[in-house]
């Protein structure tokens, strides 16, 4: 189970490492089958009754079940691996889009945009570009919440990045005119203020506890000395904004229930379903009993990543039509948006296409039957060793089965799932690193005393080469037959030979 956003840092403590194993999920079933093995061994060894069965089918059934479980685990890992590849593609595409906007979009504009009486200033253009890069940063965060079945935009890590987007259709200021992304985000508990007062921004109550990027808190070591550790606080670096309702945490793991500590009791939730008629009771189905916890979308839930992509595509279109970006970089920008759509569709496929329920149920029932019959088949040969043998076989088979079940949908809050929060933080760091570069003219940094472009053949700096340019500027043909530009080729050939010799063992 996940922890709150103020303390979660993605690191695996000893406790988290233990919880990440499947021991906590299968100990009940292991204990049950071990108890059956103990009963069979005691009756067989201590009484005249012999509880054993013919073991002729033991090897065949065990081999078949082993192959089926291997397929189950490998197919689940393929989904896990594909999810990781898609998030790598999202990170790469985000960088490409941010670079295209930051470098490719011009800040020297003479044309007056429609609806305005003047051309934008350079500062306005930089604000525009940085705002759209912030929207690129918001897109992976929106994908993260969408995959986890968390609707809307009112989250501490998402709302500050998208709150400046239009909320109503042109000319509208009522609920009926609210755009889908904002309409789906309202839940009625906190009515939206259609005419908010303008003023200085502030963090809402749910964010007041986030006062510093890293809070130094004392802790005691086992020797009694006091040491400090850092509390993870990634929302501190986001904009401070006005909001009419508390923002949800960036991480919203499902609450830990009784059946999470006793997973084998989940079956009773399904049995008790017909008797739970209260309006507040949650619907339970066998997919939730056998699989992960993921909220099902309700009517009018919007696809926030798609809507953010629309704003980015519209911006790219405006820049291309206004000749504010070159054709190549404009194509990279629109291509990146299209790549994002492909990634979103593939992530939806991974998240929303579970292994068929009949396969999961039949495999688990077959496993239970096999493990129940196992002590009866081996007690005659192993005697008291039937008890640890059954316990080990149960741990082995059910462990692999549970691992496959956990990683089948790798986008939830299980400790073995993909760390989507860290992926988003990584993208955030990289986008801010991109905008930290002022994008100067190449001539401002190429022709300096720090650059040795022709090394190792010629270790003079760019300034020295320009000051002594006679060597490289005269023609190779003429009255004086100077080497001229041909010596450039000789320099590069010498550099190739030096590198080739020096870098080979």
TrEMBL record:
It is found in: Cell membrane. InterPro entries: YneE/VCCN1/2-like. It comes from the Eukaryota. The keyword Membrane applies. GO terms for molecular function: chloride channel activity. The chain crosses the membrane at residues 21-46, 52-74. GO terms for cellular component: plasma membrane. Keywords: Cell membrane, Ion transport, Membrane, Transmembrane, Transmembrane helix, Transport. The keyword ATP-binding does not apply. It is a multi-pass membrane protein. Its main location: membrane. Pfam families: Bestrophin_2. This is UPF0187-domain-containing protein. The lineage of its organism: Eukaryota, Fungi, Dikarya, Basidiomycota, Agaricomycotina.
């Amino acid at each position: 189970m996940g922890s709150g956003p103020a303390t979660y840092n993605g690191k695996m403590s000893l406790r988290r490492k233990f919880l990440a194993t499947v021991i906590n999920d299968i100990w009940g079933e292991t204990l049950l089958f071990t108890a059956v093995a103990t009963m069979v061994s005691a009756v067989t060894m201590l009484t005249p009754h012999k509880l054993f069965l013919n073991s002729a089918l033991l090897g065949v059934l065990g081999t078949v079940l082993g192959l089926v479980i291997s397929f189950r685990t490998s197919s689940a890992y393929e989904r896990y691996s594909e999810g990781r590849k898609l998030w790598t593609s999202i990170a790469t595409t985000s960088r490409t889009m941010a670079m295209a906007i930051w470098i490719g979009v011009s800040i020297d504009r003479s044309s007056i945009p429609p609806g305005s009486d003047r051309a934008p200033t350079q500062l306005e253009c930089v604000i525009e570009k940085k705002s759209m890069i912030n929207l690129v940063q918001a897109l992976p965060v929106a994908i993260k919440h969408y995959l986890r079945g968390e609707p809307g935009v009112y989250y501490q890590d998402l709302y500050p990045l998208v709150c400046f987007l239009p909320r109503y259709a042109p000319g509208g200021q009522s609920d009926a005119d609210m755009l889908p992304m904002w309409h789906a985000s309202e839940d009625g508990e906190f009515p939206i203020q259609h005419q908010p007062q303008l003023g200085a921004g502030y963090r809402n109550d749910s964010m007041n506890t986030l006062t510093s990027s890293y809070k130094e808190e004392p802790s005691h070591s086992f020797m009694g000395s006091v040491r400090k550790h850092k509390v993870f606080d990634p929302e501190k670096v986001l904009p401070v904004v006005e909001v009419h309702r508390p923002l949800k945490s960036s991480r919203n793991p499902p609450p830990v229930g009784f059946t999470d500590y006793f997973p084998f009791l989940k079956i009773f939730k399904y049995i008790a379903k017909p008797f739970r008629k209260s309006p507040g009771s949650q619907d339970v189905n066998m997919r939730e009993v056998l699989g992960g916890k993921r909220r099902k979308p309700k009517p009018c839930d919007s696809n926030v990543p798609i809507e953010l992509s629309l704003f980015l595509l519209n911006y790219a279109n405006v820049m291309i039509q206004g000749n504010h970006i070159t054709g190549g970089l404009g194509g990279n920008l629109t291509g990146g948006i299209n790549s994002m759509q492909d990634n979103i569709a593939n992530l939806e496929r991974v998240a929303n296409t579970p292994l068929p329920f009949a396969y999961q149920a039949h495999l688990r029932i077959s496993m239970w039957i096999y493990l129940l019959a196992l002590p009866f088949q081996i007690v005659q040969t192993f005697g008291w060793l039937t008890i640890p043998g059954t316990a080990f076989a149960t741990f082995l088979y059910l462990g692999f089965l549970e691992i496959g079940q956990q990683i089948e949908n790798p986008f939830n809050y299980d400790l073995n799932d993909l760390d989507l929060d860290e992926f988003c933080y990584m993208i955030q760091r990289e986008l801010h690193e991109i905008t930290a570069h002022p994008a100067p003219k190449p001539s401002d940094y190429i022709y300096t005393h720090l650059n040795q472009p022709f090394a190792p053949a010629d270790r003079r700096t760019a300034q020295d080469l320009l000051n002594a340019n006679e060597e490289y500027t005269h023609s190779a043909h003429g009255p004086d037959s100077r080497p001229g530009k041909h010596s450039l080729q000789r320099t590069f050939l010498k550099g190739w030979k030096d590198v080739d010799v020096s870098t080979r063992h």
